[in-house]
Amino acid sequence: MEPVSVFLRKILSEFTFTPEEKMVGHRSLRETNLSRMEFLIFLGIPVSLVHLSIFYFSPEGETLVEENWRLGIIYAHFFLTLLFVFFGVSAIIINRKKLHSSIAGRLIPHFVFLTILLAGAAIAGVDQLVTPAINPFVVASILVALFIYLHPLFSAVYYLFGYLVFNIIQNQFQSNQDMLLSNLVNGFTIISIGWFLSITFWRNYIYRFRKEKIIETQKNELSIHNQILTAHAAELKAVNRTKDKLFSIVSHDLRGPLANLSSMIHLIKNEDISQEEFSSLLPELYRQTLISNELLENLLSWSKNNLKNSVANPGRVNLREITEDVIQLYKTQIEAKNLVIDNKVNDSHFANADKDMIPVVLRNLTSNAIKFSNSGGSILMETKKVNGFIEFSITDTGKGISDEQIKMVLSNEYYSTPGTAGEKGNGLGLLLCREFVEKNGGKLSISGSLGKGSRFSFTIPVK
């Protein structure tokens, strides 16, 4: 059996906000109460005006007592109407300007609670001039319980204060002691019922607040999960697109040169071609082998980068040495197009970058420049230091590139067009360039125009 203190704390927790709930809970409570205050204009004022009209236009009382009763009701409802207008307009202003945490926003619900309760006590007292009924006090006690959410301690104090005023007024207006006793007893019963209703609605409000917070939390969690699922779905879609593209590359771009090589070997083996014919085919065979090797290198680099989610391992990289090796690698293609390569890469410029990724970037950018250069054209390679970075650029005098093509190249999509000599591509090389440059803390940039060549550049940190 649990201790009494634990049981009491459990009961108390049903009527109070926890420290975690307090700030949001009280603000939500003020917003709810002040929203209800606006109905004072649409409900309380019309009711009071109806009472005013009925009593104002009714015939004067036959006796002085009846006339005093009529005037008392008129004055009471007149001042009550003014208070309803004041509180209603104040609530509207507070709600529109979001002043729920202001002093006025905190106090108005308490004033309205007391005003309605005291008005009920006053009108019930005036009614004693003609009837022993205390209906106005009954209505007021029930109405405030239904209309305004207050902490049980506050509502208890206000109900007791209202009953004290009710007691004083009844003693002033009710001379019959039996009627007075009955009214006082009934009045106490009414405030007890009103307080019970008030604490019940208060408890239900806290219960509903907690339920709504749970629902809101669950909705937020569902929203987060949906976002994660959407992101995963997008990633899966991208992976599937990549897979399809890779299958296309492997089945077409890679299989073609290998099939040609296989056919050539078969012809030589069966002596179907002469030595002179074989020698004439060697340059094309070398070109296709170089393309296949470049494609395989890119495929391996892409797989390592994407499947293993590799990260850059920065180190001291000499860009001049790498560009010289790349130029030597593509020497045959350069000579085939009679291109002039001007390597102005500063041999004192060392980058802080991954020694495996940067060569892939330079190979692909050089291959791309050769591919789109016209026969007899020129290619310029150079570097310069810019704000703690080295900017490497390769500029050609080839067919150029449009703004729309630049957007495609810099997107996550594969984009490729044939070279000036009909060279085929697959778009994987430039995609790798962008990914590897960004992994090394740099940025790939492209500029140019159709028919006037293009310039590809990227930045990497200085070592």
Brief overview:
This protein is an alpha+beta fold.
Intertermini distance: 73 Å
**Biggest sheet: strand arrangement:** 2-4-5-7-6
Number of strands: 7
Task: Summarize the helix and strand pattern as letters.
Answer: HHHHHHHHHEHHEEHEEHHEE
- How many DSSP H or I helices? 14
**How confident is the prediction overall: mean pLDDT?**
83
How many discrete domains? 2
Derived from helix and strand composition plus strand pairing, the structural class reads: alpha+beta
Describe this structure in words.
The structure is a single chain. The chain is an alpha+beta fold. The chain has 2 domains: 4-225, no CATH class; 312-461, 2-Layer Sandwich (Heat Shock Protein 90). It has 14 helices and 7 strands. The strands form 2 sheets. The chain has a 5-stranded mixed sheet. Strands 1-3 form a two-stranded antiparallel sheet. α2 (19-37) crosses α4 and α5 packs antiparallel against α6 (135-147). The two termini are 73 Å apart.
